[in-house]
Amino acid sequence: GQQVMQIPQYQHVQEGEDFTTYCNSSTTLSNIQWYKQRPGGHPVFLIQLVKSGEVKKQKRLTFQFGEAKKNSSLHITATQTTDVGTYFCAGLFHRGGGNKLTFGTGTQLKVEL
Amino acid sequence: EPEVTQTPSHQVTQMGQEVILRCVPISNHLYFYWYRQILGQKVEFLVSFYNNEISEKSEIFDDQFSVERPDGSNFTLKIRSTKLEDSAMYFCAWWEKIYEQYFGPGTRLTVT
Q1: A3 contact partners, CB below 8 Å, separation of at least 6
Q2: How many beta-carbon pairs below 8 A join chains A and B?
């Protein structure tokens, strides 16, 4: 079946350091989405990438979609304590009659002062 | 982000009991999803529901599970005979824009 893996599973950084999480799919994706989940919260949509090689930025966050549309990355520059949470990528695999997200395993980010 | 209510926020039930989880969206969306997340693990797709019918379901969504939209607004997930391994957060979700999926606040189900 379709699987989406993320590395690392956990990351502890000092405030101000950069952070990157990598997402890899077993098969080619239609598009990929990124979500942030704070402890005790629900997944919150961050961004969607559709095109091969696409790069999008949101303030300190940079998202990239691989050329083969099988991998993606999220990079946070100069982390802050507000960045704490788990970051999930989620791939969209089109099927006849429905579109469902397959979530990655997530990267839990902790930021220390 | 649109407001959605999921009730109850926390449900504790004994193994073998039936539970009904509810999601009340504010918009009249046709496409809904249920996901679950076991503590500390990834979000897993359960079922999608389109125009009052199941569109797609995962291997997790066995005969113990059912979904309904009984009154055109509430969106329910029923587990007929809960098992310990059903303990998880359950989220309803929908497409707000093209391929931007939004999640409700979730229901924490604890099966003892």
Answers
A1: A25, A26, A102
A2: 56
